[in-house]
Amino acid sequence: MSERVIAGAVAKMKTHLDGDLATYSMPIGDQLVPMNALIGKTLTLDFQGKINCVHCGRLTKKSFNQGYCYPCFQRLAQCDICIVSPEKCHYAAGTCREPEWGESHCMIDHVVYLANSSGVKVGITRGTQVPTRWIDQGAVSALPIFRVSTRLQSGLVETLYKNHVADKTSWQAMLKGSPDSVDLAARRDALAVECADDIAALQQRFGLQAIQPITDIPVQHIEYPVSEYPLKVKSFNLDKVPNIEGTLMGIKGQYLIFDTGVINIRKYAGYHLALSSES
After folding, report:
1. What pairing do the DSSP bridges indicate for beta strands 243-252 and 255-258?
2. Where are the beta strands (DSSP E) in the chain?
3. What is the pLDDT of residues 48-69, one digit of tens each?
């Protein structure tokens, strides 16, 4: 058996839909490795003890917020608390860490959606990140329900809806198989009734055009390249065990699923890995 070795800093896997099938490519150094083709093969991932910040490139002993060095973690708007809690956006208060970045990433159209990953959840994403965001979360179906003008507004709508439906994915449950089928359009319509008064209040505050319901887009179904799901989910930690080996059984979300455990590639962005595979 011959072996193919590719080495370099890794980044979040790139994804697209081929029909309904999620297709993955993993950036390693200056190469982009098609991952769907490696399912069923024996792979080895070796952490080479080097981490570069995904923003500034400097060497760092520890990675923060999925790939940043500590100075960038402290300085960048994309690492601020309002990224995980968009209802806390403080751009309008004039205290954004990087106003120009805020203009291009937060003061633009966002989508509020329902997705079925480990069960029904509400989420938000920039309009340009559909369907990437859904694939990254391992959703088997997703449905846009609002288009809003800013990230702040998306967070406020999400906050209303998470009083009635989850806003988190259970990654362990997501990796054990497909969730029960859900009629997302029916859930959208029921939640619209439950949240009607609160949505009307937001529309009065920001204007009708700023928060627009979406009712004419069909549900997006997503299939994942998984030959077998694990009965128990064991997560690898490259900082403790720098060598991973096993048969790649599938890919879902940003996780590689081996017969020996799972690894969240996004968590290790900036880590220098050597990928060995059958060729």
Report:
1. antiparallel
2. 3-9, 14-18, 21-28, 31-34, 42-51, 110-116, 120-126, 141-148, 211-213, 220-221, 243-252, 255-258, 261-264, 271-278
3. 999 999 999 999 999 999 999 9
* Residues whose CB falls within 8 Å of the CB of residue 132, separated by 6 or more in sequence, listed in order: 15, 16, 125
Contacts of 202-206 with CB under 8 Å at 24 or more apart are 202/153, 202/156, 202/157, 202/160, 206/149, 206/153
Mean pLDDT by 10 residues, the chain (279 residues): 81 97 97 97 97 97 96 97 96 96 96 97 96 98 98 98 95 96 98 98 97 97 97 96 97 98 98 90
Sheet arrangement for strand 243-252: 3-9, 271-278, 42-51, 243-252, 255-258, 261-264
